[in-house]
Design a protein that fits this description.
The protein is an alpha/beta fold and 261 residues long. 31% of the residues lie in helices and 28% in strands.
Length: 261
């Protein structure tokens, strides 16, 4: 089997008003974590939608395991790629457990009940995300951060080899944000999954990811190892002159801070 889970080959795509992604080429290997960064409107969410097949490629080729993404059925794609979108609308009348069960639908026929394996995967997803204690509660009773963790649990229950997270730390307090990013690293180490997560927090991104992909106006500005992104000229090219890089004496890792604060 190819080591490439995902490959963009000169991909351009967008909506009615024109392209949002322009001539994008990159690949994602097995068992890797990629941080997707850039300003609002740079194309991060659009890139994630392309990976799921929800948005069609206009030019170029997008491959999952060397097969064009739109040659998969929706059920087949869902067995390879799971997305937790930003601003997800939750069916708040459902219990947390029933919501997470929905992640198993790509594997269930119309008349097939949950198996012992299904239930084990669901339980593991609830435990990994810290929402097992809420499993019988309606989603409407949860805080925003708890709902976000339930959404990640449903994606984990999907048992896809590639997990896409669009701003996964939205609504989360610092402790829950740290737990979410620890989970991302754990999925790579113990479950062999790959993750692409979009974020505005550069310090979180570089603490968790193996590589960084930076977009500006839908075009690739940088793709490389985390250590290479600590570059002021590169930051200015992606964001404008808004960040500084400091190196605290008590820390071996540089830190990004907003300029002038």
């Amino acid at each position: 089997m190819t080591t490439k889970i995902l490959e963009f080959d000169d991909v351009s795509a967008g909506y009615n008003k024109g392209y949002v992604i322009h001539n994008l080429s990159f690949s994602l290997e097995n068992n890797s974590v990629l941080a997707l960064v850039g300003l609002n409107g740079s194309g991060k969410s659009t890139l994630l939608k392309l990976c799921t097949g929800v948005l069609k490629v206009s030019r170029g080729a997008l491959l999952i395991r060397d097969r064009p993404v739109n040659n998969y059925t929706a059920r087949e794609r869902a067995q390879h790629v799971a997305l937790v979108p930003q601003g997800f609308s939750f069916p708040t009348s459902l219990s947390v457990y029933d919501f997470v069960v929905m992640g198993r639908y790509p594997y269930l026929g119309p008349f097939r009940a949950l198996s012992a394996v299904d239930r084990s995967i669901i339980k593991d997803a609830l435990l990994r995300t810290g929402v097992f204690e809420f499993k019988d509660s309606p989603l409407s009773s949860l805080s925003g951060g708890e709902r976000q963790r339930a959404a990640i649990a449903a994606a984990l229950a999907q048992d896809a080899e590639l997990l896409l997270l669009d701003e996964p730390a939205t609504y989360l307090d610092p402790a829950a944000r740290a737990a979410t990013y620890r989970l991302v690293r754990e999925l790579k180490k113990t479950a062999g999954r790959s993750v692409i997560f979009a974020t505005h927090d550069l310090n979180d991104a570089l603490a968790v990811a193996d590589k960084v992909l930076a977009l500006k106006e839908g075009r690739l500005k940088f793709l490389g190892d985390v250590s290479e992104f600590y570059n002021k000229d590169l930051l200015d090219a992606v964001y404008g002159d808004v960040f500084e890089i400091i190196r605290p004496a008590q820390s071996s890792a540089p830190v990004f801070t907003l300029k002038g604060l």
